[in-house]
Write a structure and sequence with these properties.
Blueprint (H helix, E strand, L loop, with lengths): L2 H15 L14 H17 L4 E7 L3 H7 L5 E6 L3 E2 L4 E3 L7 E10 L9 H6 L1 E11 L10 H6 L4 E6 L13 E6 L2 E7 L7 H14 L9 E3 L7 E2 L5 E6 L3 E8 L1
Helix pairs in contact: 1-2
The chain binds hexanedioic acid and magnesium ion (MG).
């Protein structure tokens, strides 16, 4: 087995058994292409177990996070059906290593979108938009990673919850939002924190997934990226997002 495949198995097993592993590339020496190849192989294992590919998640979509990581482009990960959590559902905490949650905006596409799309072309491919929550759960010990580490680990993607879908023919570029834990607001932000406008994140998703030979498909979800810093979650909590005009979404965390 190649070393890349061995790492893919290690990370997939870590996610499957919720058991942290040491960083695979603490000094960030792997190329990003190799890191994405590991990510792809790890998702292939999920698909081989019967999960379906359902979309893409975008990461490091805020300037602050890019500066912190010393990068000048977003990263992306692959969403599979096993990561989707019904709105309002209860999730077992034991399914995760050390989960955090961040408020996002989700797109669902009505047609394929590939390559260097303009903002107008991107909007024309959107069926609907919704408030969403992403559960990020790095598989690395202490949530510590280099850039290749986190890419190989599917950009920490672990779960996502989507609220009711709304017509995208409205201005969703600067919608106020809150993230609450047990009804207490813990983060306040705006969809404008996602690359200045979430549509820019969709354009980036189209570019990056096409470059990887996996262009965005009709019916796929694109999680646009965190609109505020992430918060740790604990058993017993109810986590929710409230987004101006688009509504709410939430989930319970069970022991
Ligand atoms: O923005 C993101 O979703 C990036 C997730 C990867 C980094 C992290 O785990 O904090
Ligand atoms: Mg995210």
């Amino acid at each position: 087995m190649s070393q890349a495949l061995e790492i893919a198995h290690l990370l997939d097993d870590a996610a499957r058994h919720a058991k942290a592993v040491p960083q695979i590339d603490p000094h960030g020496e792997l190329s990003l292409a190799d890191a994405y190849a590991i990510q792809s192989a790890s998702i292939q294992r999920r698909l081989a177990r019967g999960e379906r590919r359902v979309g893409v998640k975008m990461g490091f979509t805020s300037r602050a996070k890019m500066v912190q990581m010393g990068i000048d482009d977003v990263i992306w990960g692959r969403l599979s059906s096993g990561m989707q959590v019904e709105e309002g559902a209860a999730l077992k905490f034991a399914r995760f290593v050390h989960p955090r949650v961040e408020p996002e905006l989700a797109f669902v596409l009505k047609k394929p979108l590939a390559g260097d799309a303009t903002l107008v072309e991107a909007l024309a491919a959107v069926e609907a938009v919704a408030p969403a929550l992403e559960i990020i759960d790095s598989r690395y010990q202490d949530f510590k990673f280099s850039l290749p580490d986190v890419i190989a680990d599917n950009a920490s993607s672990s779960g996502f919850v989507i609220g009711a879908w709304s017509d995208p023919q409205q201005d969703f570029g600067n919608l106020g939002l809150t993230l609450s834990i047990d009804g207490r607001v813990v983060q306040v932000g705006s969809t404008a924190a996602i690359l200045g406008h979430p549509l820019r994140s969709l354009v980036a998703a189209a570019r990056l997934s096409a470059a990887a030979g996996e262009p965005l498909q009709a019916g796929w979800v694109v999680m646009a990226g965190g609109a505020t810093p992430a918060e740790w979650i604990k058993p017993g909590q109810y986590i929710s997002i409230e987004m101006e005009r688009l509504g709410t979404a939430g989930f319970h965390v069970e022991e």
